[in-house]
């Protein structure tokens, strides 16, 4: 299967929230074949926990979950994440689908569905997100397509993981991230055994200072990092 051009060489991250393990595995595998980085969880609480500490571009969310209703999960995701939401539903009534859209879903897909239709919906949602994916905080502008930061002082291009670290902190400004939180967000389960996060933060501070953003990343001693 051809890699989706919106996948950005695998940079687009997708979280599949589906309690049917075989379906979740199928969706994640097909998304992986299409060039995305896909993880799957089976509970709403797991999804919310991941979204609080990791950066996702899209959440494929089942409406019927065993612990928390998908509508509530969508509402709470909106509070902690800027990911687009594609809702999966077996409910045939229009009211449930409209409720999902009002809760924050960008789109919905009725079960049963074809893999081709799912990938097409994912493609469209990510393309829309890509068109509006620039983040702004104070005088700083982050462009994920170019991996660049811009201010009135100039523009710099960052290595991918440095950019992802900065984007994580800016997206969730006001939230404290431990080193372990950041490592999971950047590397998933393959966490390096090193002081990589400290090096990334040092590099970012040095580069951001050139853009007039010397104090952007704050250190909370023995706890982690945050952007205010």
Structure description:
It is built from 8 helices and 11 strands. The chain has 228 residues and is α/β, with parallel strands linked by helices. The chain has 2 domains: 5-131, Rossmann fold; 135-227, Arc Repressor Mutant, subunit A (Orthogonal Bundle). Strands 2-1-3-4-5 form a 5-stranded parallel beta sheet, with helices on both faces. The chain has a 4-stranded antiparallel beta sheet with strand order 6-7-8-9, covered by helices on one side. A two-stranded antiparallel ribbon has the order 10-11. A hairpin with a 4-residue loop joins strand 7 (140-143) and strand 8. Helix 2 packs parallel to helix 3 (70-80) and helix 6 crosses helix 8 (196-209). The longest helix is centred in the middle third of the chain and has 17 residues, at 115-131. It is elongated and about 55 Å long. Residues 1-10 have low confidence and may be disordered.
Please identify the structural class as seen in this structure: alpha/beta
Uncertain regions spanning at least 5 consecutive residues = 1-10
Strand line-up of the largest beta sheet: 2-1-3-4-5
**What's the CATH H-level superfamily name of the largest domain?**
Response regulator
Summed up, the helix count is 8
CATH class term of the largest domain:
Alpha Beta
- Cα distance spanning the termini: 43 Å
The profile of the biggest β sheet is:
5 strands, parallel
**Total strand segments:** 11
What's the order of the H and E elements? EHEHEHEHEHEEEEHHHEE
Helix percent reads 40-55%
How many domains?
2
Strand content: 15-25%
Arithmetic mean pLDDT: 85
The coarse overall form would be: elongated
- Calculate Rg over CA atoms: 18 Å
CATH architecture of the largest domain: 3-Layer(aba) Sandwich
Q: State the CATH topology of the largest domain.
A: Rossmann fold
Q: What oligomeric assembly is this protein in? A: single chain
